[in-house]
Amino acid sequence: MRSAACWLVIMAVVMASGIQSLSAEEKKAAAAKPVSEFMNLPSLPACAKVSVKSGDPSKGGAVILAKAATGCTVPWHWHSTGEQLMVVSGSGKVEMKDGSPMMAHSGSYLNLPGHGVHQFTCTMACTFFIVTEAAFDIHYVDAAGKEISTEEALKSKAKGMKHEMKNDMKDMK
User: Fold this and answer.
1) How many H helices and E strands in the chain?
2) Candidates 2.40.50.140, 1.10.10.60, 2.60.120.10, 3.40.50.2300; correct CATH number of 36-172?
3) Domain residues of the chain, as ranges?
4) Is the pTM of this model over 0.85?
5) Sign of CA dihedral 89, 93, 95, 101
């Protein structure tokens, strides 16, 4: 908890000093630039929403604030370039193909390599930053590692979620 607080203080100081070094014209342009509201993206599960905070993820590097409900999973996928994840609140599990799962909690930082096949599940409603190195893309894969369509990946995940919920209901009886 203490490290998360220190990180936030450091970020605030860095951001404040960066703002001070902007010219009056740059400050005016930055203030006029709208920050996107949270929205769903067709390439992500409906249980996840994003808000672009800096840059244009369709054209280059960007900072994206994401939030997802408990149990929300972005199925196995990879990105063309690396991405950094910084958890603000909640917790999640990151699984890399052929690697051990990693738990991420408030204050956690993960640096994921480009082309590294992984999936992310919010184990407790979570909010996190995604920092992309280049334009954001997502390539879903099946269990064999073969690339599949977004529709197929999200449909099979939705079926799996329904099946898990059905089993949970049976266990509760």
Assistant:
1) 3, 9
2) 2.60.120.10
3) 1-33, 36-172
4) no
5) positive
The three-class DSSP label of residue 20 is helix
Q: How far apart, in Å, do the first and last CA atoms of the chain sit?
A: 38
**Residues forming a β-bridge with 50:** 39, 66
Q: How confident is the model at residue 34 (pLDDT cuts 50, 70, 90)?
A: low
Cα 3 to Cα 170: distance, rounded to the nearest angstrom = 42
Over residues 123-171, the pLDDT tens digits come to 999 999 999 999 999 999 999 999 999 999 998 665 444 434 343 334 3
Q: How many whole angstroms separate alpha carbon 91 and alpha carbon 150?
A: 25
